[in-house]
Amino acid sequence: MKTISIPVNDRPHLLAKCLASIRACPTWREWTIVFSCEPPVKEATEQLMIATPGAHISRNSVKLGCWSNTFLACEIAHALGSTFNLYLEDDLVISPDTLRMCDAFIAEMKPGIIALRRPATSEDANQPSMIDRCKSGLFGDGFGFPRRLWIKIRAAWFDNGDGHPMWDWSVERGISWMDQWRPLIPRSTNIGLHGTHAAGAYDPNRHSPCYGGIPVSKFTFGP
Fold first, then answer.
1. Are 59 and 32 in contact (CB under 8 A)?
2. Average pLDDT, the chain
3. Cα dihedral sign for 59, 103, 157, 181?
């Protein structure tokens, strides 16, 4: 069971674009979408979730906040039996070949995780099919992992030893020993400039466009 876990913060205009990008992936129906939704829930958000075929919807009775709700989205996917989970926030759009890239990663049985973005300074627009090791953080812009690694990732989620106020900093530090595979051209774009820990700042590492060329059917992994 392959899952896409999405923590939802009741921004229907963003969630609609996120889901549209998932549906643009030819194999999206092979994946189960898991929503972990914070209250209050607008009718537009509810309808988007209900209209998603085969989705699992979890509605929090109280607002957990973006640190705990992000964790819960992955935890629910794991509890459902996910063998591979792709974590996406509700303000991300992905490229149409993203799920095929994840399938290629699964087939290669590479150690570690696959993330959808890398620093802008290490991108290479001439190699859309190439994926290599790159440690950079940016987990909030989408990352996928096999079931066996969730126990390691979940242990790092709330480990705030460096004082940074968000889960992705904790995970970056906590799994720094783990291989991280990233495409040379990003497969996600963050379209939400305003959030709990961001207020209009533009970061090219997060908001530059994702790959929009001819979808790749065969990916190559570096050594």
1. no
2. 93
3. negative
CA dist 206 → 60, 149, 210 (Å): 28, 25, 10
3-state secondary structure of 46: helix
The predicted model scores a pTM of 0.94
- Give per-residue pLDDT as tens, 167-177: 998 999 999 99
- Using CA atoms of 115, 117, 120, 124 in order, give the dihedral in degrees to the nearest 10: 80
- Distance, in Å, from the CA atom of 13 to the CA atom of 44, rounded to the nearest integer, reads 9
Six-digit token pair at 178? 């783990």
Which helix or strand (DSSP H or E) is residue 57 part of? Answer: strand 56-59
CA 44 to chain centroid, in Å, comes to 22
Return the bridge partners of 57, or none. Answer: 35
Residues 6+ apart with CB under 8 A from 153: 74, 113, 145, 171, 174, 175
Residue type, 214: I
- Section 30-55 average pLDDT: 96
Q: Which amino acid is at 34?
A: V
Amino acid code (one letter) for 11: R
Note the pLDDT tens digit of each residue in 103-136.
999 999 999 999 999 999 999 999 999 999 999 9
Query: Which residue pairs from 52-55 have beta carbons closer than 8 angstroms and sit at least 24 positions apart in sequence?
Result: 52/19, 53/29, 54/29
The domains located in the chain, with CATH, are 2-221 (3.90.550.10)
Flag whether pLDDT at 38 surpasses 60: yes
Rounded to the nearest 10°, the torsion over CA 27, 182, 176, 9 is -50
Q: If pLDDT is split at 50, 70 and 90, which confidence band does 193 have?
A: low
